[in-house]
Design goal:
alpha/beta, signal, transport, TRAP-type C4-dicarboxylate transport system substrate-binding protein, TRAP_DctP_sf, DctP_fam, 14 helices
Amino acid sequence: MRKTPSRYLAWALGFALIATGAACSGSSPEPDTVENPGPVSLKIGTADDDSRPGGLAIVEFVEQVRTLSGGKILVYPVWEAAGEGVQQWDQVVARMLKDKELDLAMIPSRTWDTEGVTTLRALNAPFLVTSDALADKIVTSKDMSDQLMAGLDKAGATGLALMPESLRHPFGFQHALLTPTAFKGQGIRTAKSDLGDATIRALGGKPSDANGDAFDAGIRDGTLAGAETGFVLSDALPVPGIAAANVTFSTKVNTLVANSGMLAGLSAENREILQKAAAATREWVLAHRITEAANAAAYCNRGGKIVKATAADLQALDRAMQPVYAELDQDASTKAMMDRIRQLKSSVPVPATGVGSPC
């Protein structure tokens, strides 16, 4: 992923750099056995760098594990584990976890459908989870989060917690992306996901996970007319665009996961420590996340433009999603979870700070 300057506090940056150095120096997880009384060393990977929200959560998790274990478990971050400029960057990290190159990982929930995991698809259904407030309710419901993460075992992973990040909007580089007509025939940069790709195609667009120099080139030559991302990540866009504040594809939610085999090999006490650290990190994320309104204002200050779709525009976008929902509804478990999310959504108010203002 594209690098940007770190926003860590000094202690966090220093700790992350030390941890990264240890991870890159060839350290490997120590078996959790009586014969090895030293600290258990684990590596946690992410496709992000240390300035992204997922990276901030990793630093908090590392500290929570160290504190709760009294230093008996040490977790070392591996930043940009997929490499720079690669496609399917999140899938690369997911496969590294499955292949035991990593012990733990922070991976967006949308990623897993390409890896055979279907239980998280309801969380990423188009235009369903459209507020941070709703995402917060979902990830803090143990019943819902456990059901959503239940299928991760198909990819050799065990879910420890769901971490909400930010709303995802269309950012147009040539024109605003407010209607299916605006998407038609246009290349749209989006992180790889079967469901995400299907959403863009249903709108008439052409999904692309071009990254690094290829992303820049696509904007320059006009083959990429827009990108699907969040205001909190918009400083990584090569150029400012026109964001549709009330067109919300989904809310990005990260999964904090462990390799299932590694986790099973730990003592019951150490497994409990990782679970407690994950829960504490989720609470830290909820308490420290910057509001949608503040992130949108920062985007405006960087030269971006924000517009809003009309009620008619939103209805047209919803109609375009009918084939996508017809496919999702074929899975009874996914349909049931989407119904639960809709019911919850009807009772969750969106605060004023949860919406970006036009500029």
